[in-house]
Amino acid sequence: MPKKDTSPKRVDIGGQAVLEGVMMKAPDSIAIAVRKPDGSICVRCDPYVSPAKKHKWMGWPIVRGAVNMVNMLVMGMNTLEASSRMLGVEEEEPTKFEKWLSKTFGKSIDKIVMGVAIVMAVFLSVGLFMVIPSIIATLINKAVKSLLVVNLCAGVVRIAILITYIWACGKIPDMRRTFEYHGAEHKTVYCHEAGLELTPQNAKQFSTLHPRCGTSFLLITMIIALLAGAVVDQLLHVIFGVERLTFLARLARSIIILPLIAGISYETLKGLAHSNNKLVRALRWPGLMLQHLTTREPDEKQLEVAIASMKAALDGKPMPDTILGREESAEKTPEAPETEA
After folding, report:
1. Which long-range contacts (CB under 8 A, 24 or more apart) does 50-54 make?
2. What's the pLDDT score for residue 184?
3. Is 131 left (phi over 0), alpha (psi -120 to 50) or beta?
4. How far apart are CA 276 and CA 235, in angstroms?
5. Rounded to two decimals, what is the model's pTM?
6. Would you say 42 and 60 are in contact if contact means Cβ atoms under 8 Å apart?
7. How far apart (Å, rounded) are the C-alpha atoms in residues 17 and 51?
8. What are the φ/ψ torsions at residue 30 (nearest 5 degrees)?
9. Alpha carbon of 68 to those of 51, 52, 60, 76, 142: distances in Å?
10. What digits encode the pLDDT tens for the residues 11-58?
11. What pLDDT sits at residue 329?
């Protein structure tokens, strides 16, 4: 029988896989652990204050989903940057253009690059999941008057792009390895939720598919976007007599209602994750199946990294980059020091 973890407090922990590591986010702290090339595990932990604690209205239902979408985008980019530094990835010499940007805006080159990366990520997302579906929907709308059919086609295109994009990412070796760490993150979260001692042996028995995963959130967002678009288009038809939307009108409508879609999707994900009746299991099944593309079975060393991150997040104490142990002594010190949750 696995040994029960006697820690009294249980909290929801979210996470993110990074290059050769895992980020875990507790209510009051964010921890990152990566496996360095020499086999050691580097861990850092920083305090975290949620937007809802700073501004109460940001914790309101629906609103918190839109806030969380923006927060996770920024946090995800910052996490990737921090994990790269911890891993020891060599930085390239800044270009003259990057130096000019840094001097012009009075920001460090890292912040400039991070800002550019966020802007590019937003443009890529808008292009793939809004512009292309809107173009196709506009073309279909010229031949089909039914707004429901038009939105259904746009939704199918959006989901097909998502699946194709994730599948293509999985063909990249580094991404496949990151997907293994994604699986390690889920197994470790399950182990924590089950109240078991955080060890690779206990964690590896669990599934790599988790109902609170961001992959499920993406699929839910696509479905909610389809439904919301159909409702808004129908209202425009009833109130203003609009039968066809131009490409720009359809794109503007998609962008305007995006915060509402994110808010509804977030509440839906939380509701599905914390219930377990037959209807709920059926509704979250598609999102879990999609996770087969974004997770892989991890090995014990990857589980060690995820556990180190989990323990640091639960401990919540500030921890600047700390080396825990090298590969040759991994059996003796495979994880962060024991901490109380």
Report:
1. none
2. 98
3. alpha
4. 35
5. 0.85
6. no
7. 23
8. -125, 125
9. 9, 10, 11, 11, 37
10. 789 999 999 999 999 999 999 999 999 999 999 999 999 999 999 999
11. 33
